[in-house]
Write a structure and sequence with these properties.
Layout (H helix, E strand, L loop, with lengths): L15 H19 L3 E3 L13 E8 L3 H17 L2 E9 L6 H13 L6 E9 L1 H9 L2 E11 L7 H9 L3 H18 L7 H11 L5 E8 L2 E8 H9 L3 E7 L5 E3 H6 L6 E2 L2 H8 L7 E4 L3 H29 L5 H19 L5 H20 L5 H16 L10 H31 L21 E2 L4 H8 L5 E4 L6 E6 L2 E7 L9 E8 L2 E6 L9 H20 L5 H20 L1 H25 L4 H6 L9 E2 L14 E4 L6 E6 L2 E6 L10 E7 L4 E5 H9 L1
Parallel strand pairs: 2-3, 2-11, 3-4, 4-5, 5-10, 12-15, 15-17, 18-21
Antiparallel strand pairs: 1-11, 5-9, 6-7, 6-8, 13-14, 13-16, 14-15, 16-17, 19-20, 19-22, 20-21, 22-23
Helix pairs in contact: 1-12, 2-3, 2-11, 3-4, 6-7, 11-12, 11-15, 13-14, 15-19, 17-18, 17-19, 18-19
Length: 697
């Protein structure tokens, strides 16, 4: 049984290479969406047409590329077919999973929420990314026992270095990951209780020691999950601790414990019971996805993806040295398409990133084959390629959390190493290719336009004649791409540039003669040559303006000025030489994002950043910490809501900023409220209007 996506984008291309391989990429996407067979849970009636209402995704072991590709295919197919998905996690997950790949699956689960119903069925030990994904599903059930927990991620290389030099770095990483998880859980349709959310926080942060206590307060007994500070606050408030037991670090909950905390909904005996009794779906309309060749292919795609990226970019660079549309361009585009296809399979790249990649290829092809020397199309194509390669390795555009900042920084480091490798290998091949037998035929210059035969320095007399021309100015008789012909004193000579393209009719200067090889460069008057120092100053000014845009509100004015300075520096660098222009382009593409990222990291620590950005209240400013006996004095006092109370928030009462909550109703910011219940742990408020109405009645 094969299912295909209903909408496949048209990726236009202006070259044979990009056009052919873009459609090949679309074909691969079709093959991936077709996937493997669907195994029915129960055999349907012979005369009944199979109808898919539920897709079951079996996941066992660590969430690797194959398992993630299968999960993404299930979510895409379910969104297209309008059916639900059940993730069957059996002894799944671990701490060695790729953080960016797991984050892509979590974002995909959140992205289909409201369109696709998601259910997690747990059996055995469910850890890491599998446990995280199960918590984000609409509901979770155990299948004849098991446990869930221990979602602490493995630190990246730079995080390990930071933790070696800073003892508090690990704690900050745990807290940042826990805050990100808390935000995701708050976006669930079925909200978790405070106790469940605290236990989930303990699954992430192993440094958090949680205690399960049975406490008697105001004559009532209740069970709570608190940390050591909250336990001390309860004792200080006069509560009686009847029983207490420490929770394992990191938190791991069995099926009964998870159900008691309302993290899971219960236990089912079989998938048939889940489908029929819980989801209300006929088991004959439930199908289990099987691994297809496309999921098994993703393993070797992951292994060879760095090589594909390097080879693809190197071959595209070599395409510039070969006339026409040749094998380097075709294979280079193919390798890059395979690297992007891997990112699409594991959920990192989507249609916009893929379209941006092929637009970059088309722009570069326009610069190379249709309008050489314009520079604009080449610069746009390079920027599109860099942007697509960065965005196709992550599920966000700009980082919002610490975890996303680390992923972006890791991706930029990888791409920086990628560009260094490309420059090194391309430079070597650029110089060695003309000397390799057979392959050097690819570097033959295009046929010159009709006219007098070009002078070839084949005898000593001709060589002496041409050696005397070094330093003279000539006019290009053909397009130098990079080989061609020039005219000097009515004679034509076969020449080659140092890699730059020169349009026909442009002035060039003969700079060297090496045997039968005449080397020329674009002739630019000294008055027109810009200083490299001035170009660096303009580029640095552009980066400074980009950073200033982060700190100062200019409504985009500084951003426009920064873009103008950066583009001007690249344009003037290309006027100097193609090598200098490419160096400026690559340098700005690397330095500008890193400078912007560092500005966002540094700004909250500056005085200006603290003035512009909201920050949490200092502990001494908060009235009403756990165990604060002065909370009782606020009873029956009135104040103003400083934030929307939904139902918790902040209010100003008796000149203090107080952490308050309502009985469940929503109160808008600025409303007048009254305290009708206060103790050492919490302050309960209500609208003054509601209070007056109840008093009158």
């Amino acid at each position: 049984m094969c299912y295909t996506v209903s909408v496949i984008p048209r990726l236009a291309s202006q070259s044979v290479a990009s056009g052919f391989w873009s459609w090949l990429f679309v074909g691969l996407m079709l093959a991936a969406s077709c996937g493997g067979n669907l195994k029915p849970m129960q055999e349907p009636a012979p005369d009944a047409a199979p109808r898919v209402q539920l897709l079951i995704v079996p996941v066992t072991g660590v969430l690797g590329t194959q398992e993630l590709a299968l999960c993404h295919r299930a979510l895409r197919q379910a969104e297209q077919e309008g059916c639900n998905v059940v993730f069957r996690f059996e002894d799944a997950g671990g701490d060695s999973e790729s953080r960016s790949d797991v984050q892509a699956l979590l974002d995909h689960i959140e992205g289909v929420r409201g369109k696709v119903g998601t259910t997690a069925v747990l059996r055995g030990k469910v850890r890491g990314g599998a446990a995280y994904a199960a918590l984000l599903c609409d509901q979770a059930w155990f299948l004849r026992g098991g446990d869930i927990g221990s979602i602490t991620p493995m630190p990246t290389f730079d995080e390990q270095i930071a933790e070696w030099t800073d003892d508090s770095a690990a704690g900050r990483r745990f807290r940042a990951f826990g805050a990100e998880m808390k935000e995701r859980l708050q976006r669930r349709a079925q909200k978790l209780t405070a106790e469940a959310a605290r236990l989930c926080e303990g699954m992430v942060d192993p440094s958090l020691q949680l205690v399960r206590v049975r406490v008697r307060e105001r004559g009532l007994e209740a069970e709570r999950v608190v940390d050591q500070k909250e336990l001390t606050g309860l004792q200080g408030a006069g509560a009686t601790i009847l029983d207490q037991a420490e929770v394992t670090r990191p938190v791991v909950l069995g099926d009964k414990e998870a159900e008691a905390a309302r993290i899971t909904s219960g236990t089912v005996q079989s998938l048939e019971q889940l489908c029929a009794d819980v989801l209300g779906i006929d088991p004959k309309e439930c199908f289990e996805l099987e691994y297809a060749w496309i999921e098994r292919m993703v393993a070797w795609l992951e292994l060879f993806q760095p090589a594909f990226l390097v080879l693809g970019l190197v071959l595209l660079v070599l395409e510039i040295k070969t006339p026409g549309v040749g094998l380097p361009g075709l294979f280079g585009t193919a390798f890059l398409a395979l690297a992007l296809f891997y990112n699409w399979l594991v959920g990192l790249a989507e249609i916009p990133e893929i379209a941006l990649f092929f637009l970059g290829i088309a722009s570069l092809a326009t610069e190379i084959f249709l309008m050489p020397g314009v520079v604009v199309f080449g610069a746009i194509g390079f920027v599109f390629l860099v942007a697509s390669l960065v965005l196709s390795r992550q599920t966000f555009v700009l980082p919002d959390t610490v975890s996303q900042q680390e992923i972006l920084f890791h991706n930029l480091l990888q791409l920086t190493g990628l560009f260094v490798a490309v420059i090194v290998f391309a430079s070597l091949l650029w110089r060695l290719l003309p000397r390799i037998p057979v392959l050097n035929r690819l570097c033959l210059p295009p046929q010159p336009s009709p006219g007098p035969a070009a002078v070839r320095p084949s005898d000593p007399a001709a060589q002496q004649q041409i050696a005397a021309l070094v330093g003279q100015t000539a006019r290009a008789a053909t397009v130098l791409r990079p080989s061609g012909a020039v005219e000097v004193g009515g004679e034509r000579y076969d020449v080659v540039t140092e890699g730059e393209f020169v349009e026909a009719g442009a002035l060039v200067r003969i700079v060297a003669v090496h045997g039968n090889r005449i080397v020329v460069e674009r002739a630019i008057m000294d008055a027109q040559r810009g200083s490299v120092g001035v170009l660096l100053l303009i580029a640095v000014l552009g980066v400074v303006l980009l950073v200033a845009e982060v700190f100062f509100v200019s409504f985009g004015v500084l951003m426009v000025m920064s873009g103008g300075a950066l583009v001007t520096a690249v344009f003037l660098a290309f006027q100097e030489s193609q090598t200098l222009g490419i160096a400026f382009l690559i340098g700005e593409a690397i330095v500008a994002p890193i400078a912007l990222w560092q500005a966002f990291r540094i700004m909250p620590r500056t005085r200006l950043g603290r003035a512009l950005m909201l920050e949490g209240m200092k502990r001494e400013e908060v009235l009403g910490a756990v165990g604060d006996p002065s909370m009782v004095s606020l009873l029956h006092k009135r104040g103003v809501a400083l934030s929307p109370l939904r139902p918790a928030g902040f209010a100003r009462i008796d000149g203090h900023r107080v952490d308050v909550q309502t009985r469940g109703e929503m109160i808008e910011q600025g409303s007048e409220i009254e305290v009708f219940e206060a103790n050492a742990n919490r302050v309960i408020v209500r609208l003054v209007a509601a209070s007056a109405k109840s008093a009158n009645s």
